[in-house]
């Protein structure tokens, strides 16, 4: 396995990417270097180890199915799976980048580097816990949130243009009195909407490994900060490569685009009593797809036999997650809520 690590030219400790400064930082002697400096400096541009191939664990499986090699610093065994591209030694925390998994068809086009620090992620999660009155006390007591990890998640980013037309059958109904008669008049319209809409940066999951995390829920990312990929940004984080092929996501992305175009056309068909969508013809052109690694702070924790997952957008700080609920506390709250609701209902009745 070809691996890479970044070392401080002053003290030889590890250099990791620091979200706060956007630089490579040595936590030991506190020197920092810009990513470009590190790229150009041979002293910092870590050591590439050719550790030989990872062992195969059975005849049928090649070494590409999983990852197993000894840590260049402490000799401890580092194990990852077939999609691990950056990890750390579980014994000495040596950050390691598996360059072999970041080349050829797996070389990412872009990256959005972390902007939120681990400290900020931990305090946001603590706040999330703090704000939830329904959490069982036993769950919040342990210092679980400290185990949050920074992970670069593989995404496919699609661009395209959609143009076409949609027809609608619409009616406008008016009722009026004419002498002794009540008249209902229905006018029937054939409405056509057409146009071209450009879509940039539609994100699609590149991994099937993030069970329990709905990656859409931590979107959006600010793609104006997306930059060409470079290994340096991964130092100190975990990273996975894609296991969903671009062709599979492209089709899904185009369906999403067509639905969104139809929606935006339909939103302009207003002032009618009824609108029924008829024939539509929408074509996708200029389709383009890029492979990007996007930052997520993640926490997986077990409690009472169930796994709870939290995720935070590593760029914007948006947090999502499910939390265990204390049933007793839940009912107390619900009763209170209904109490308030009843009071409000009574108030409304009074006003009316
Ligand atoms: Zn140093
Ligand atoms: Zn180690």
**Bound small-molecule species:** zinc ion
Rg value: 27 Å
Percentage of residues in DSSP E strands: 35-45%
- Provide mean pLDDT, rounded: 82
Shape: elongated
Task: Give the topology string: H per helix, E per strand.
Answer: EEEEHEEEEEEHHEEHEEHEEEH
Structural class: alpha+beta
Domain count, please report it.
3
Question: How many β-strand stretches?
Answer: 17
Main sheet summary: 12 strands, mixed
For the termini, the CA-CA separation is: 75 Å
Question: What features would you describe in this structure?
Answer:
This protein folds into 3 domains: 2-107, no CATH class; 118-165 and 189-321, no CATH class; 325-352. A hairpin with a 6-residue loop joins strand 6 (66-70) and strand 7 (77-81). It is α+β, with helices and mostly antiparallel strands and 352 residues long. It has 6 helices and 17 strands. Residues 51-62 have low confidence and may be disordered. The protein binds zinc ion (ZN) (2 copies).
């Amino acid at each position: 396995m070809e691996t890479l690590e970044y070392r401080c030219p002053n003290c030889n400790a590890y250099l990791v990417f620091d979200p706060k400064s956007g630089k490579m930082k040595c936590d030991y002697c506190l020197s920092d270097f810009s990513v470009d400096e590190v790229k150009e400096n041979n002293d910092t541009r870590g050591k590439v180890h050719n550790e030989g191939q990872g062992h195969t664990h059975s005849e049928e499986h090649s070494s590409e199915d999983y990852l197993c090699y000894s840590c260049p610093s402490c000799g401890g065994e580092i194990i990852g799976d077939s999609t691990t591209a950056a990890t750390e030694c579980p014994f000495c925390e040596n950050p390691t980048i598996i360059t072999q998994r970041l080349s050829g068809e797996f070389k990412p086009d872009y990256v959005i580097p972390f902007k939120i620090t681990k400290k900020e992620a931990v305090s946001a999660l603590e706040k999330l816990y703090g704000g939830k009155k329904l959490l069982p006390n036993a769950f919040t007591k342990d210092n679980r949130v400290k185990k949050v990890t920074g992970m670069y998640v593989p995404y496919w980013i699609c661009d395209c243009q959609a143009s076409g037309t949609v027809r609608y059958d619409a009616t406008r109904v008016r009722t009026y009195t004419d002498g002794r008669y009540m008249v209902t008049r229905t006018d029937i319209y054939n409405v056509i909407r057409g146009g071209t809409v450009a879509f940039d940066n539609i994100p699609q999951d590149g991994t099937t490994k993030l069970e329990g995390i709905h990656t859409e829920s931590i979107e959006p990312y600010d793609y104006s900060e997306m930059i060409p990929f470079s290994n340096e940004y991964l130092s100190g984080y975990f990273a996975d490569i894609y296991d969903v092929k671009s062709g599979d996501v492209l089709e899904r992305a185009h369906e999403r685009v067509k639905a969104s175009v139809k929606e935006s056309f339909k939103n302009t068909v207003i002032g009618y009593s009824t609108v029924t969508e008829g024939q539509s013809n929408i074509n996708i052109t200029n389709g383009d797809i890029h492979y990007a690694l996007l930052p997520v702070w993640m926490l997986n924790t077990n409690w009472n036999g169930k796994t709870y997952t939290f995720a935070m957008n590593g760029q914007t700080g948006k947090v999502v997650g499910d939390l265990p609920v204390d049933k007793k506390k839940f009912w107390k709250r619900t009763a209170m809520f209904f109490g308030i609701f009843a009071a409000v209902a009574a108030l409304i009745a009074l006003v009316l």
